[in-house]
Amino acid sequence: MKRVLLLLVFVAFAFIVMVPEASAKRWLVGDNMGWSSSYGVNYTNWAKGKHFYNGDWLFFVYDRNQMNVLEVNKTDYEKCNSDHPLHNWTTGAGRDVVPLNVTRNYYFISGKGFCFGGMKLAVHVENLPPPPKASPEVAGAPPALYSRSQVVLLPVVFAVGAAWDTFIHLW
Ligand SMILES: *[C@@H]1O[C@H](CO)[C@@H](O)[C@H](O)[C@H]1NC(C)=O
Ligand SMILES: *[C@@H]1O[C@H](CO)[C@@H](O)[C@H](O)[C@H]1NC(C)=O
Ligand SMILES: *[C@@H]1O[C@H](CO)[C@@H](O)[C@H](O)[C@H]1NC(C)=O
Ligand SMILES: *[C@@H]1O[C@H](CO)[C@@H](O)[C@H](O)[C@H]1NC(C)=O
Q: Signal peptide: which range, if any (predicted)?
């Protein structure tokens, strides 16, 4: 009985946690290094293993007096050619947000020569995976939830459990 209760608490928690998880994400390009040539960030490696979904944003933070954010095609990305950008996302503040609202490949470079130093980013934007099926049992019958939904929810429960552990430790 205690296990069931614990599971229910986790599941309830999981649903609360999963809602913002499933929504659009704003990616800080280069994480805390930003869009820069100073730290030798390899933006190919930064993007590796990340899943960019339609509806996400890229957030470029950089020195507005030096760099810029230009969207180019694949050829110009490879050649670091900034002569005919598809889109100039530079607003002048050094903080530019690019909506990834089409499922395709995007290519960004910084002009002014910085691309040659490594300031180039390619991201593959995917369609959002279908949302997990909401189980009608959740509201009604705990035994059914325990037996039937357990398989589906178990990874989530583990993830939440791990997050919870971390939370407890940080507390
Ligand atoms: C990119 O644009 C350049 C110049 O407009 C063009 O020569 C090149 O073929 C384009 N490459 C692709 C992959 O579309
Ligand atoms: C991009 O737009 C910014 C702001 O409007 C402008 O200052 C800059 O010259 C443009 N850069 C290019 C390469 O078009
Ligand atoms: C994507 O966002 C850009 C910039 O806000 C906008 O111009 C374009 O119409 C949008 N495209 C789609 C398919 O929503
Ligand atoms: C980034 O790393 C990849 C290998 O992970 C390498 O192929 C690529 O040339 C590097 N890019 C730059 C700009 O150094």
A: 1-24
* Ligand 1 atom closest to 76 (CA): 1
pLDDT per position as a tens digit, 39-85: 999 999 999 999 999 999 999 999 999 999 999 999 999 999 999 99
Overall pTM > 0.85:
no
Report CA(76)–ligand 1 centroid distance (Å): 7
- What are 162-171's contacts with CB under 8 Å, separation 24+? 163/17, 164/10, 164/13
Q: Are residues 89 and 75 in the same domain?
A: yes
Same domain, 33 and 104: yes
Partners of residue 53 on adjacent β-strands = 126
Whether 134 is covered by a domain: the verdict is no
Q: Which ligand is nearest to the CA of 86?
A: 1
Q: Which atom of ligand 3 is nearest to the CA of 99?
A: 2
The range of the structural domain enclosing residue 33 comes to: 26-126
